[in-house]
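Sample entry follows:

_____
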Amino acid sequence: MRFGGNLLFHTISPTISPAISLGLALVVTSLTAGHNASARDAGTPEPSSPPQASVGALPEPSASPEPTVEPAAKTPAADPTPAVEPPPVAASTPAPARAPIANVDFDSESSLDGDGAPEMSEAVGRVVKIRDGLVMLSRDSAGSLRPGDNVGFRDEIGDERIVGKVRRVNRSTYEVEVQMNEEVELGEPGYRSQASVTSRLSAPPPGNYAASLSLTLRPWLGLNNRDSGILIEGHARLHLAEHFRLLAAAEPASPTIGTTFGMAEMYMAPVVSFRLAEMGLGIGAGTANNNASYTTNGRVFSGEPEWGVLVTPILALGAEDGFRVRARTSAIVHSGRATFGSLRLEMEIPVAHGMRLTFGGGGGDSGYAYGELGFKMLVAGMGGAKSWLVHGMLGYGGTFATSTQLVDGYAVYATRQANGPYVGIGAEYRFGRRRKSRD
């Protein structure tokens, strides 16, 4: 039936119009599809020989029925890149279940061992003694620290506030070096630390104290018929806030002894203080001992020392107990005019824990001059409350003043000096604790 239909179609198709040919093709195709369906239902196989096509004929549609296709979800357009067959997946054993984390001390410091697993550190010892910048730490049974290792001491919330370095390992203790003003308590635990040391010799942290008092004496020995005398300095410092202090000072003062002229520069200054800088402006009273004589309306005014209002700016650079340079200058307002008071410079260079070399000098028209070198040493405490510091120095200095003498009815300007070498000594005491804010 299928063969006869195709033969009839191919025979008449050249002689009829294309529309009729298309209609006949559809009819023949329908009859062929029905015959194939009947043959499939009866179990007869479908002829496998392909149909013969001729030139100019339309292609014959497939006789097999269209399979029923379930509607599929809309998927994005396929990537034009040729698909690559995935490698076969080998059977794998299930990963072991992770052990639950329990009782982890997050205040402890973690480190990584050779396998990369975290290991929580424990205290390696407790403070048993403190002396000269060394913290003696009881040695743990494992002896886990070596010279050069760092040891941390923590605050109340577990942060490291001080980190020192192990300098020596003894039979039963570790010697841990800390800097001035780094205070630890007896019995406090120490932990192995990966952090760097928290301060250096040249820049230790500020001391934790509320106030300090200091006194320095420079008694000079008059030579070559010059009078002897003494330069006295005193300071009182009060910490009002984290970065605000109040300073009261006599810097210096010299009483009248024999024929020497007395002088003084005394002031009170609010000071803004940071770890590496300090600035202030003082107001007080001072002497002007360099007053040349002058004549007005026939009246001679001698150049005797006069008191006036002292104005003094202060600037310091560097840590309070480390490398530090301090400068102070002054002007004195008296008799309706302002004159230069003095200029002084001081420098401190730390050479060991609690030990500094000191250099200083200054003077001016307020009536004094000096130059010295010396040392400053911490003799008790760690630099905070209940700490004592001593200051020793060698120098040369004294006082001077101008005066006017009448010679044959004329006023003669003259300067009188009293100076000589001296060995000076000073002491400073710090007391009271202040609450330090967290930066």
The CA atoms of residues 95 and 426 lie 74 Å apart. Helices lie at 2-12, 18-42.
